[in-house]
Design brief:
Blueprint lengths: L17 E4 L8 E2 L9 E3 L4 E4 L3 E8 L2 E9 L8 E2 L4 E3 L5 E12 L4 E12 L1
Parallel strand pairs: 2-10
Antiparallel strand pairs: 1-4, 3-8, 4-7, 5-6, 5-9, 9-10
Length: 124
């Protein structure tokens, strides 16, 4: 006995990919050195992106101020994150400070992903 045939299921195109990783590992609570003229603390969120559109833009704010704008052409392999440099220098200031990071990835199709984090940093 033959099984009844089912109608064909239309194949939908693959979902567009939009990946944005931002690793805000808490840096040392205290940075030793001269609180006035010391070296800056380099913060690297180890950001990476992958997308299926033609272009994307990453904008990063630090404590409410625009710190980086990066435009990226499509990655060579779809869905494979590529590293982007969002390294930021924090200069010595007196006392403790809670820093806030916000980064937004927007692709050419208008889709967005937002990543946020915060961490304390003390010089001296």
């Amino acid at each position: 006995m033959a099984l009844p045939s089912l109608p064909p299921v239309p194949i939908e195109p693959a979902q567009p990919s939009l990946i944005f990783e931002l690793d805000c590992v808490t840096p040392p609570q205290r940075v030793l050195g001269d609180a006035t003229l010391g070296d800056p603390f380099l913060f690297d969120p180890r950001a990476s992106v992958a997308f299926t559109g033609r272009k994307a833009t990453v904008t990063m704010w630090v404590d409410g101020f625009k710190a980086h704008i990066i435009t990226i052409d499509r990655d060579t392999e779809v869905r494979v994150p590529q590293r982007i440099d969002l390294t930021h220098k924090f200069y010595p200031v007196a006392g403790s400070r809670q820093h806030k990071i916000k980064a937004v990835l927007k692709d050419s199709a208008g889709r967005t992903l937002t990543r946020k984090c915060s961490f304390p940093l003390r010089f001296g």
